[in-house]
Amino acid sequence: MEYSKNVMLALKRDLVLKKPPIPVSQWIAQKIQQNMGVLSFASFFQSNTILVPVPKSSLMQPGALWVPERLATALVKMGLGKSVYQYLIRFKALRKSASSLAGDRPTPTEHYESLLVQKSLVEPDEILLIDDVVTRGHTLLGAASRLFSVYPNAHIRAFAAMRTMSTPSDFKNWYDPCDGTITFRPQNDDTLRRP
User: What residues in the chain have per-residue pLDDT under 50?
Assistant: First the structure.
């Protein structure tokens, strides 16, 4: 479990691995490309898929590290998507989920209301949101909902390089690729992520 925390920190900083000496974002893209035949979510990466990096909770600063954008770029370079497009812009900063208590994390509605969509000339058919780590899925659901409000005919899915686990007994291995669902629960303005 401790090793997986170190992997997450390396991902969050996009550190360079020793063997081979490449950033974590590129290593992840290579692993996905090498394992396309066995990954349950391989269909997310189509030749016409536009990869959309999920904005940080803070407002973007020039030159700041943006790991979802690095992941998206690395994936496209490996042939796992058509292009990277920054459809989503965060215009209102939110509390950082990672440093907030569970009940104080920004809700899906707060994410939705703090994002704008930068439209493109051509309406996309396939959109894949790219994020580094998913916890409950509030950010991804808010981002997907905002995109859907502008592109209701697009097929919108999400990919996160890692997922958190609340129950230690659910932890199997730091490498455990899967696909799942994030369901909106309007009565609480939160989500249910499975797995």
Answer: none
Which tens digit of pLDDT belongs to each residue from 109-135? 999 999 999 999 999 999 999 999 999
Spatial CB neighbours of 146, under 8 Å, sequence gap ≥ 6: 88, 111, 112, 115, 116, 117
Quote the CA–CA distance of 177 and 41 in Å, as a whole number: 9
Which domains are seen in the chain, by residue range?
2-194 (3.40.50)
Residue with tokens 């407002």: 59
Q: Which two tokens stand for residue 50?
A: 């536009």
pTM of the model: 0.95
